[in-house]
Please model this.
Amino acid sequence: MKRVLSYLLLHVFLLSAATPGFATIIKVHPAANSIHHAADNARSGDTLLLQKGIYREHDIIISKKLTITGEGFPVIDGESKYQVFIITSDSVIIQGLQIQHIGKVSITDMAGIRIVNAKCVTIKNNRLINNTFGIYLQNATRCYIVNNMIHSDTKDEINGGNGIHAWKSTHLSITGNSISGHRDGIYFEFVTDSYIAANTSFDNARYGLHFMFSHNDTYTQNTFKSNGAGVAVMYSKGVIMHDNEFVHNWGDASYGLLLKEITDSKIEHNRFTKNTVGIHMEGTTRVDVRHNIFEDNGWGVRVQASCSGSNFVENNFIGNSFDVTTNGSMMLNVFNNNYWDKYDGYDLDKNNIGDVSYYPVSVYAVITEKIPPAMILYRSFLTDMMDQVEKVMPTIIPDMLKDDHPLMKKLKL
Amino acid sequence: MKTIIKYVLLDLLKNKTILVYTLILAAITISVSGIGDNASKALLSLLNITLLFVPIISILFSTIYFFNSVEFTELLLAQPIKRKTMLLAEYAGIAIALTIAYLVGVGVPICIFYYNLAAVTLIISGLFLTLIFSALALLIFVLFKDKTKGIGAAIITALFFILLFDGLLLSFIYSFSDYPIEKPLLGLISLNPVDLARILVLLQLDAAVMMGYSGALFKKFMGSAMGSIYTLVCMLCWTIIPLITAARIFKKKDI
Model:
């Protein structure tokens, strides 16, 4: 027994001797270029412990495996001219810093923290305030962006940058961040197999979350609130969206969720409340919309005729001004077993399924879809009458769009 | 003038119709408010009721009352009273009676159940509709000599504003849909007090839809303080112009 133990100890000792010395903790105090010096002199595996204070440094390139930790949120200021961290090494950890006032130029996208061609980088518990871009991932793999507070005061779409911007990356995990006041809260372009969870994205000038060409990603338990145009998921395959909240994305061109050219995706257990349009779908194929709640939206779901093979099953539609609209008579999607609060059919056999089909598209919705100014007649006596007449004898509304098994009672979701 | 208003009011308050009108309004309001848990939904139903009942009842009842009290009017005109004063006093009497009926029937219950901006807007537009349609009744009264014709005209007027106007507007929108018609539409809407009242209340209630891209312009204009003032001024014009016209015609009318 003793022998085995000493053998083991020897092994441990030899192993640690093989690496160049033990990792050390280097304390950094605010001074001219102190972080630069520390980063240059540190060895791979060291920890830089930044003391409280203001550091006016920029373009700090981290090309070694370092852990940079802030004590009491030291401030690193870009003086509205420069960018701050550029990480080019794998396994870097940055935590507890406040990075602020990143500059804005036309040639590069300046970011508070930029990760370039690196793997396994962790950005944790930082505050990024008034930056053009908050965190910028460029060809990054397996990076963790956790619990950061990212805030800016972007006034319009042209001058702002994105809170978290990821380009050509894979296996990212973005969780627990709070992002506000940027152009897009989270922007994904060519990012695959990533996981976005428990983030709050609000008051951004454009989208709360923006997907482009990003396949097989999951986002869950996020809240998207009061963004200029809601959430947009475009040109992507295999996106899984569940347990998110889309709240109060309100305006002339605003959507809770905008889907464009989406294939084989799932939208489940989400809640769409008080959006101008709950879900807007264009050119989607095989999208499963299940167990969602659409509440108090202007339009619950707007399904363009270019969508096909999508299922809308077991959703609650409550208090929407219009439940569903479409722009053609062709409907290649299936609506089934949903609860519609406007359904006024009966259920003779008491099996909780209405005995007559429900046509969720009202005639007035069809008219306003064709001629938007007709909106001025909304809720006039005439349009109510037209809706009633159409219910008895459908001629204008797309009769293929119907729910043959509408539920009599609200689903518990 | 005050004496005439007083007598007309007293006469009307003795009249059972006003009482029944009040009771029906109150019953509808209370039952609608009791059913739904959703305030904006209940207000929407009340809006529909206001837009449908108030114009019809106001105009029909006023017309019938004016024609029924022709003898009283003739008697009064034998006295040294200006025709204009007499006519306006009669109008004031009936308008006050109907206003009280609306306030008691709809105003008080919704103020108790949901006191917010939308409710107040609904009450204001209901009151304006009452004033406007009794003024139109006055105009009908001075234009027609025959009671039957007068009542027919009243029914047609009410139907025109409630239903026909919107139908015409819709066909107008349909035929000119290729043109930018949003602004002309705003002008056209001012020609119908019922539509004005509807939009005024809707902008406080169902803003989600009105704020879609199509409703953007309407919201931008009608939803602003300027728009609300414009709407109210329009409604005021709708009250005053029929009154002035009626008074003018009545001055020269051979009774």
